[in-house]
Amino acid sequence: MDLSNLGTTCVIGLFWGDEGKGKIVDVLTEYADVVVRYNGGANAGHTVVIEGERFALHLLPSGSLHGGKTGVIGPGVALDPAVLLEEIDHLRGRGIDLTDRLKISKRCHVVMPYHKAEDRLNEQVLTGKDKIGTTARGIGPCYADKMQRSSAVRFCDLFNPNEFRERLGRIVRRKQAVFAALYENPEPLDAEAIADQYLRYADQLRNYLCDTTSYLQHCLQHGRKLLFEGAHGTLLDIDHGTYPYVTSSSSSALGVPSGAGVPPSAVQSYVGVVKAYTTRVGQGPFPTELFDENGERIRERGHEYGTTTGRPRRCGWFDAVAGRYSVQMGGIGHVAVMHLDTLSGFDRLSICTAYTVDGKRLDEFPAEVDVLERVKPIYESLPGWSEDLTSVRTFEDLPQAARDYVLRIEELIGATVSIVSVGPERSQTIFRNG
Ligand code: IMP
């Protein structure tokens, strides 16, 4: 695979997030000038390991770790200034300075303290199937206010202090009334204190404020190469995911133009990222979930614990029905299969090729969440391999069973597997030709 030929590229998760996009973005950043986050907020967690050093980022584009590259936070992002400042400071402490190479869209919506409170309180009062199992980062309530409009705050609003104070006063009065009606003992909200705090954040972030839409237009006109970094995954997309067990942003390939502020034609290649198995955190249907020692073994070998919340991830076999759905929806040309090394040591591996429901075969990923909860996977069993893969560097050097496993995934989801990852390090990446 010739990475330098991909043009303006987007990296997108094809399942429920945590596929390992951070590492692929990191690898592809070398060929890009500008790396753009365009959706979600601090609910995302991207882990990158560089020369043994582990970086966990929530809001900053992973590409920001590379000197000389510009990071952009686009208008579709829910911006939590407290988290962002912490990340900027943390990187500065580790010798990575973002001055002059981070641009934040004036149009971003801002996550406020009452959004986080609402996210948490909501999850406390909801029971059973109504619970979403959110990350409690305030993302859903922030996007809900964006849609509601009169109670939203955008990044540019923080630079108009008088207007912001007045508006925030009105918003906080309404929030307090709603909280008092819905929740037991909600913590009090102090509009003045919140305004002071957010105006201080604005001062610290002033140098990064940018009309990123114009900036990206300018980059495109001058042939600068952009890399779009998707957060979460296609099956968590608000319109196309396993609704209502989804996040609140457009986290499939379809969200790029809108969230970044670029024309659809600007994206030349989509690289979809999957794991060699499937994981999910939070509530929601997961047809191939394993409740036995195989699931436990994948979790332990793959270190499947959330970057953002530390929650153990639910683990299961590879679901090719879901993979095919995401590939087709996103027009995905290249696929990266991550964590192939995690599957070493299983006698046999299973891939879900179709579902059955009510005695009927189902080859398509269903829209109805209750159907997805009832489907039974039809599995194909493949031989496993015992070899450690972590030092393999070419596709041809993988054991035959591992190659066959990857090729079967490729065939079933209908997109070329161009990248295979066999460990967290940048060097543990196999690029496949043809
Ligand atoms: P929210 O995005 O915090 O509202 O959470 C909604 C659902 O999306 C929950 O099931 C979360 O666990 C899940 N979710 C959100 N972001 C991520 C992510 O980056 N990786 C995996 N799951 C996520």
Task: Give your account of this protein's structure.
- The chain folds into two domains: 317 residues, Adenylosuccinate Synthetase, subunit A, domain 3 (Adenylosuccinate Synthetase, Chain A, domain 3), CATH 3.90.170.10; 99 residues, Adenylosuccinate Synthetase, subunit A, domain 2, CATH 1.10.300.10.
- Strand 3 and strand 4 form a beta hairpin.
- It has twelve helices and 20 strands.
- The model has no long low-confidence stretch (mean pLDDT 95).
- The strands form five sheets. The chain has a ten-stranded mixed beta sheet with strand order 9-7-5-2-10-1-11-15-19-20, with helices on both faces. Strands 14, 16, 17 and 18 form a four-stranded mixed beta sheet that branches. A two-stranded antiparallel ribbon has the order 3-4.
- It is globular, with a radius of gyration of 22 Å.
- Helix 3 crosses helix 4 and helix 5 packs across helix 6.
- The chain is α/β, with parallel strands linked by helices.
- The protein starts with 8 loop residues before the first strand and ends with a strand.
- The structure holds inosinic acid (IMP).
- Inosinic acid binds next to helix 4.
- The site of inosinic acid has 22 residues, from helix 4.
Task: Set out the fold topology.
Layout: E1 9-13, H1 21-29, E2 34-37, E3 46-50, E4 53-57, E5 70-73, E6 78-79, H2 81-93, E7 102-105, E8 109-110, H3 113-125, H4 139-148, H5 161-182, H6 191-205, E9 209-210, H7 212-221, E10 226-229, H8 256-260, E11 269-275, E12 278-280, H9 293-301, E13 314-316, E14 318-319, H10 320-330, E15 334-338, E16 348-357, E17 360-362, H11 369-374, E18 376-383, H12 400-413, E19 416-421, E20 429-431
Bound molecules: inosinic acid.
Inosinic acid binds at residues 16-18, 43-45, 132-135, 137, 139-140, 231-232, 236, 245, 247-248, 281-283.
